[in-house]
Design goal:
The protein is of the alpha+beta class and 744 residues long. The chain is built from 26 helices and 17 strands. It starts with a helix and ends in a 21-residue tail after the last helix. The relative contact order is 0.07. It is a multi-pass membrane protein. GO terms for molecular function: ATP binding; DNA binding.
Length: 744
């Protein structure tokens, strides 16, 4: 019924427009008007008869040549109604803008001639409205002032009535000189590009000069061309030369030279990224949204539209007296009414007196990691641990700093984009750091997600795949954290950044004579530049199943204390349940990312609020930034396996030397045969051995009762005693025999 009503109105407006156009085109001054009659014996010249003669005379009398704009507007109006689009997509302001444009046009026309001849008839150019307005303005503002005022009003009307934007117009004007500048600089860009093709031994000296992009495209083509030829931004260029701390970490057998960072050409660019929704379709959906909410008894209007790569947020201002909870409860009804996959309601939008209604776009735009790394936000970030996440609902790049988080928790169902997000984070770090400034410790129980990073120079240890070995890796990280704090305390500094700066200043002078300092327990302190360490666990749930107590303890200690020591955690899990994401872990990792989950319970487990269950998957995420309690919806940057392979191959090729810190990561070398690693010895093990030897009983329950420990811990002690030959192996229901004689 609504469709037929639109068609009826469209035909009515079209008919009126055709009659108006015919009457204006056939206007004759001798036809009868409101103030006179036609000459005796003269036939009517107007094609629409007496009505057309009166109408055309009245319009020409009032607005002059502006009368021809009315049928044009009528044709556009009828066409919009036939297509089901909003006639005034910007509300009343649209009509105000059209009136302003018409008034300024007829007033300006009146300045340049009182009359003009059209189709053989003399017509008052600006009509009475334009003539009177021009006389009034000329008498008070003179000619120049009147033109400035009318020009300003015309631009205001243009902005209100059309999608015209002064910002976009300014970019268009700026694009012309920038394009000319880029063409003039093209030979220099080619010369810089050839520097990337030099042999590997010379490439390190040529890399910092320029890293042009051979296929970079963006919403402003001229800006991208300028970025191809210009040198790297200062924040990135500062990372490429080798500062003094980096130089000191180079092994003695290697020449001290700058390590080249990967060129952006190793990443792909997707043409679909530039696609944007049709503004008319957005206006139509906004009108439909208002109608559907009106059907449910909620009155209000859409005040702003923010299109993004995957979703579009409609800022809805409800009428006075409408409770927000009513709109929030209509999310599923709106999803069905709008034929959308899911609708998420943000009530209210932080800092605005409006409610955000997020509706999926019909066509999703691909967000590439390359577009984020090439963005100004990524280049301007001063932190070496800057990571690229994706684009927000307005299409702006989203980057954040791992040093501010300082740890990150990622959760989501299988296939929603967790692994792609981890790859995007790791590649972001690889694009800004050499092995001297950043090291990775990767734990991948699934064995396939992080295997591509094997043998890159940033790894402290080969990718850990065994859960028991992962527990030892976490224990090593805790020990490394404690060692780093001893180094920081010895230099009287509070964090790793200050420590490296102080050490760089000291090493620039002559090193002091004498042996290394020793702590009170005899531990030797060897000061050296400390790289950041990023510890990534791809599947936390698997580790919690094997050794939940130990894993939780180590993660908690690292999350609480490791920030100042330069150690950062990135934890990912596909099972966001309370036995995996325990309260202690969540309390110490406030920065979280949630992809699509299966239920509201899982969403509350990860984010402490609902919303993640309505996400669309394929990289659609909710990000809880550090220091805020407001969620941010982001479309994650996509990274293909081929891109990851190209970047990791680049590092293997340019930095193949052995890891100078490998001797410090020895958690994988302690276990052999029946020999028990020192790290696996329980602090109460010696007490348990004395108890067993003295009592001549070797049972798990006895150790539990006497030492007041858990079953698993007591059973592990008995296993170690068996391996060391203290007790005999188990023999069914018979008690174990104590093989060590009792001390006299």
């Amino acid at each position: 019924m609504e469709r037929k009503k639109h068609e009826a109105w469209a035909l009515a407006v079209l008919t009126a427009s055709v009659l108006t156009a015919a009457s204006l085109l056939s206007y004759h001054s001798a036809d009868p008007t409101f103030f006179g009659s036609s000459a005796a014996g003269r036939t009517m010249a107007n094609w629409v008869g007496t009505l057309g003669a009166h109408l055309s005379w009245l319009l020409f009398f009032l607005i002059g040549l502006g009368a021809y704009a009315l049928p044009v507007f009528g044709f556009w109006w009828s066409w919009s109604l036939l297509r089901g689009r909003a006639v005034f997509p910007y509300g009343r302001m649209h009509g105000v803008g059209l009136v302003l444009m018409l008034w300024t046009a007829v007033t300006l026309a009146a300045f340049y001639g009182p009359k003009a001849t059209f189709f053989g008839q003399e017509i008052l150019v600006g009509g009475q409205l334009g003539t009177l307005s021009a006389s009034f303005l000329a008498a008070r503002l003179n000619l120049l002032g009147a033109h400035v005022l009318l020009g300003g009003f015309f631009l205001i009307g243009l902005v209100l009535a059309t999608p015209f934007s002064l910002k976009s117009f300014g970019r268009l004007l700026l694009a012309v000189p920038l394009g000319v500048f880029a063409l003039l600089k093209k030979p220099r860009a080619k010369a810089a590009a050839t520097q990337l093709k030099v042999p590997p031994e010379e490439r390190s000296a040529a890399a910092p000069a320029a890293r042009p992009s051979r296929k970079a495209k963006s919403s402003s083509g001229s800006e991208r061309k300028l970025r191809e030829t210009a040198p790297a931004p200062p924040s990135l260029a500062a990372e490429e030369p080798a500062p003094s701390p980096r130089e000191k970490t180079v092994p003695s057998g290697r020449s001290v030279e700058a390590v080249p960072l990967p060129p952006v050409d190793l990443l792909d660019f997707y043409e679909a990224e530039e696609a944007s929704p049709d503004p008319s379709d957005l206006q139509e959906k906004a009108r439909t949204l208002e109608e559907k909410l009106g059907d449910f008894g909620v009155q209000g209007r859409v005040v702003a539209i923010n299109p993004g790569p995957v979703i579009t947020m409609y800022e809805y201002s409800p009428a006075p007296g409408i409770k927000i909870s009513r709109i929030v409860g209509l999310a599923d009804d709106l999803s069905m009414a709008l034929k959308a996959t899911s609708v998420r309601v943000v009530a209210p939008i932080p800092g605005k007196a409006a409610i955000g209604i997020e509706i999926p776009n019909e066509k999703r735009a691909m967000v590439s990691l390359r577009s984020i790394i090439e963005s100004k936000a990524f280049a301007a970030s001063p932190s070496p641990l800057t990571i690229a996440l994706g684009k927000d609902i307005t299409g702006d790049p989203v980057v954040t700093q791992l040093t501010r988080m300082p740890h990150l928790l990622i959760a989501g169902a299988t296939g929603t984009g967790k692994s792609v997000c981890i790859n995007a984070i790791l590649l972001s770090l690889l694009y800004r750091n050499t092995p001297e400034t950043l090291r990775f410790l990767l734990i991948d129980p699934k064995r396939i997600e992080l295997s591509t990073y094997e043998h890159i120079p940033h790894l402290l240890h080969p990718v850990v795949t065994e859960p028991k070995m992962a527990t030892r890796a976490l224990r090593w990280a805790v020990q490394e954290m404690e060692l780093r704090y001893k180094l920081l305390a010895d230099k009287n500094v509070r964090n790793i950044e200050t420590y490296n700066r102080v050490l760089g200043k000291e090493e620039s002078r002559k090193p002091p004579e004498g042996p290394p300092r020793e702590t009170a327990n005899g531990f030797v302190l060897e000061h050296h530049p400390l790289p950041y360490i990023v510890l990534v666990i791809d599947e936390l749930a698997d580790l919690m199943m094997v050794a939940s107590r130990e894993v939780e303890e180590y993660i908690t200690r690292l999350a609480q204390m490791a920030r100042a020591a330069g150690i950062h955690l990135i934890l990912a899990t596909q099972r966001p349940s309370v036995d995996v994401l325990t309260g202690i872990i969540k309390a110490n990792i406030p920065t979280r990312i949630s992809f699509q989950v299966s239920s509201k319970v899982d969403s509350r487990t990860v984010l402490d609020t609902n919303g993640a269950e309505t996400l669309l998957g394929a990289g659609d995420m909710l990000f809880l930034p550090p220091g805020t309690g407001k969620l941010q919806r982001i479309q994650g940057a996509f990274v293909s396996d081929a891109e990851v392979q190209r970047v990791t191959d680049f590092w293997r090729e340019h930095h193949p030397e052995a890891d100078p810190m490998a001797r410090r990561v020895s958690f994988a070398e302690k276990e052999s045969g029946s020999e028990i690693a020192d790290e696996e010895m329980d602090e109460k093990y010696e007490e348990a051995v004395r108890l067993v030897v003295e009592s001549r009983q070797a049972s798990i329950s006895m150790i539990q009762r006497r030492l007041r420990i858990g079953y698993n811990r007591a059973a592990r002690m008995i296993e170690i005693m068996e391996q060391q030959g203290i007790v005999s192996p188990s023999d069914g229901s018979k008690p174990r025999e104590v093989l060590v004689p009792k001390e006299s």
